[in-house]
Specification:
With about 250 residues, the chain is mainly beta. The protein contains 2 helices and 17 strands. The chain has a single domain (about 20-245), classed as Exo-inulinase, domain 1 (Jelly Rolls). The longest helix is centred in the N-terminal third of the chain and has 12 residues, at about 5-15. It is globular.
């Protein structure tokens, strides 16, 4: 059976398109945003573990933030509230379990000396026992940590493989010229045994912050996680526009 020239061209074009175009999942946390908001609650967000001790999560209006916001299109953000020992997490259940994962998100940070926040994403999150306290799954925890010095950030990847045990895969401190507080665009990638962490100030030009290797977890889900001690407001971290795709 012969195919037309037009059909052949279309097949070539489709084959050249990145896989992420067909597998991207986005959490906007806005009303009507991709079906995640149903009028009163946010679907496809599940606290882990689901227990009475969990103080739940909330979506807060941008006007209540104590940082400078520059994205005029934003209407609401995700804010993690405290749990036991100021540690908490929520499963992004719309994202399927997989091996190679790329997660991009916008995180809003304050860089005061008393707000040493440790918040981020767990990739290849395991369905088994928790990897930190009782509220964060085992997996690779990509987090950005403020240092108390404006513009100076720590980019870290931790392996959470047993309760209360944390192993550094990488921990790199980087001065970000021109950044003091507000939105910072982040990208975490696990591909094979490679882990990479990127940042951007404009969501266009990406800078590699750190890389490392680990073969402990082969696949898993994705979580937002917050806390892990330090500072007086460790749970005051705000997330927006979480995008999942399969890395090239």
């Amino acid at each position: 059976m012969k195919t037309s020239i037009i059909t052949q061209v279309l097949l070539v074009v489709l084959a050249a398109l990145p896989v992420s175009l067909f597998s991207q999942i986005i959490y906007t946390f806005d009303k009507g945003g991709n079906g995640f908001y149903n009028g009163s609650t946010y679907t496809n967000l599940v606290p882990f573990p689901a227990s009475a001790s969990y103080s739940t999560f909330e979506v807060t209006n941008a006007a209540s933030l104590e940082v400078t916001l520059t994205d005029a299109n934003k209407t609401s953000l995700f804010r993690g509230l405290s749990r036991t020992a100021n540690v908490g997490s929520v499963d992004l259940t719309a994202i399927p379990s997989g091996a190679d994962q790329q997660v991009e998100w916008t995180q809003y940070l304050k860089t005061s000396t008393t707000d040493l926040t440790k918040n981020g994403m767990v990739l290849r999150a395991q369905a088994s026992a928790p990897g930190y306290a009782s509220s964060v799954r085992q997996g690779y925890y990509f987090l950005i940590q403020t240092t108390g010095t404006p513009g100076l950030m720590k980019f870290r990847a931790l392996r959470l493989d047993e309760a209360e045990r944390v192993t550094n895969i990488f921990d790199r401190q980087i001065p970000i010229t021109g950044y003091t507080a507000g939105p910072l665009y982040l990208r975490a990638i696990v591909k094979g045994t490679s882990l990479s962490f990127y940042y951007s100030l404009d969501n266009a030009t990406w800078n590699l912050a750190a890389t490392g290797d680990d073969a402990t977890f082969a696949e898993g889900k994705v979580q937002i996680a917050w806390g892990l001690g330090g500072g007086s407001n460790v749970t005051d971290s705000y997330f927006d526009n979480v995008r999942f795709s399969v890395p090239k």
